[in-house]
Amino acid sequence: MIAYLSLGLLGLLTLSIPVGIVLFLLGFGVDQFFSPFPLIKGLGNLVWSSSNHATLIAIPFFVLLGEILVRSGIATRTYAALDRWVSWLPGGLVHANIATATMFSATSGSSVATAATVATVAMPQAERLGYDPKLFSGAIAAGGTLGIMIPPSINLIVYGFLTQTSIPRLFLAGLVPGIGLALAFVVITVILCMLRPGLGGERRTFPFPEMLRALLQLIPIILLFTVIIGTIYKGWATPTEAAAVGVAGAVVIAALFGGVSLQMFHDSILGTIKITSMIMLVVIGASFLNFTLASAGIGRELQAFLEGLGLTPFSTILVIVLIYIVLGFFIETLSLMVVTIPIIVPLVVEMGYDPIWFGILMIVLIEMALITPPVGLNLYVVQGARQSGTLTEVMLGTIPYIIAMLAMAAALIAVPGLALWLPEALQ
């Protein structure tokens, strides 16, 4: 049945059918041909129960927060400020791409939104200053993936909801690997640009007083991140309540910088509705598919398959990592998460692994899927912002950063404390 399901999934996706609809169609197919019970009669109740949860309200709030920051012009100011602090490194503005993506990841919670924001602001600079288009665009695509690792992350909220694990602990667990991955991107960029200086363009320095003035542009974003994450970790607010506070804070920041207008609110709300509707359709569709798969015994089948291999728990984790890497080539990231979590996570927990740790490992692999063809969403987002060149250039530019992600996945497997140290220290 696994083979039929995989072929059906890939076949429907190649027809450009929306992912949420594909998941419903597969659920109907499993119900019709493999399930011993007529599950379709319970569809209405399942749709309602899978979407009627207070935790999920955090998703539109965090999406709206990111939309306000982008559409009020704060992204442009943030990029310019970080440019003055990091462009002295070998690679120049490439580091501003990574730094801006890291900072917006700490507020928006969405990789695609982060990549689109940085690409829109940065691409005109690349063309004007003569940067290598491959490395420059690849850094934006890779930096955008940090949006689902550094808290607050929409994907971590979905993971916590589906696995019933603590979302604040997941946020804490993602902080060190997320910042570590951003630093790895910086290091690998420095190494490449030292070996081939032509990749990075001109290194620029600015007077120190100008650098200090630029910090004023960053203080509101840093304060916003501190308020959102601090209230969650202190137990003063749930992730949903903190997201609402974050939206209010984003409006205040936009007003301080003169970015508030009726058009800004209109565009932000419309963008939030579109993104949230897509996410919820995928979550609900995946819930129905997972329900039918459980009824048909897919979990037992997969467990029997893995046990039949006679592997140790460590070897099984490596097989699971390989499965995610391969599936990431073909399946959109959120869909990949919600389809596989109910099947894979119970097996991982049964082998004695921590679900918090595995969630962070999964996010690293999901990040990789965002920049690997043919379905890597960030590749298309960045290419759309470029409006010139080829998609192949963006793909080639992400290769060094994919290597950094593989190294981070290996580090998490070798040293689980990278993810678990902070949650345990602050418990």
Question: Could you list some keywords that capture this structure?
Answer:
427 residues, mainly alpha, 0% strand
Helix content: over 70%
Shape field:
globular
Number of strands: 0
Q: Compute the separation of the termini in Å.
A: 42 Å
Task: Provide a descriptive summary of the structure in words.
It is a multi-pass membrane protein. The complex comprises the extracytoplasmic solute receptor protein and the two transmembrane proteins. Its main location: membrane. Keywords: Cell inner membrane, Cell membrane, Membrane, Transmembrane, Transmembrane helix, Transport. Part of the tripartite ATP-independent periplasmic (TRAP) transport system. The chain is an all-alpha fold and 427 residues long. The protein has one domain. Helix content is 78%, strand content 0%. The chain contains 20 helices and no strands. The longest helix is centred in the middle third of the chain and has 35 residues, at 262-296. The radius of gyration is 21 Å and the shape is globular. The chain starts with a helix and ends with a helix.
Summed up:
Residues 9-418 form the TRAP C4-dicarboxylate transport system permease DctM subunit domain. With 427 residues, this protein is an all-alpha fold.
Question: Any chance you could write out the topology, listing elements then pairs?
Answer:
Blueprint: H1 2-14, H2 19-33, H3 43-51, H4 58-71, H5 74-86, H6 93-108, H7 111-129, H8 133-144, H9 154-163, H10 167-195, H11 208-233, H12 239-256, H13 262-296, H14 298-308, H15 313-328, H16 333-350, H17 355-369, H18 377-386, H19 391-414, H20 417-425
Helix pairs in contact: 1-2, 2-13, 3-13, 4-12, 4-13, 5-6, 5-11, 6-7, 6-8, 6-10, 6-11, 7-8, 7-18, 8-18, 8-19, 9-16, 9-17, 10-17, 10-19, 10-20, 11-12, 13-16, 14-16, 15-16, 15-17, 16-17, 17-19
Protein name: TRAP transporter large permease protein
Domain TRAP C4-dicarboxylate transport system permease DctM subunit: 9-418
Transmembrane segments: 7-30, 50-70, 135-158, 170-195, 215-236, 242-265, 277-298, 318-349, 356-381, 401-422
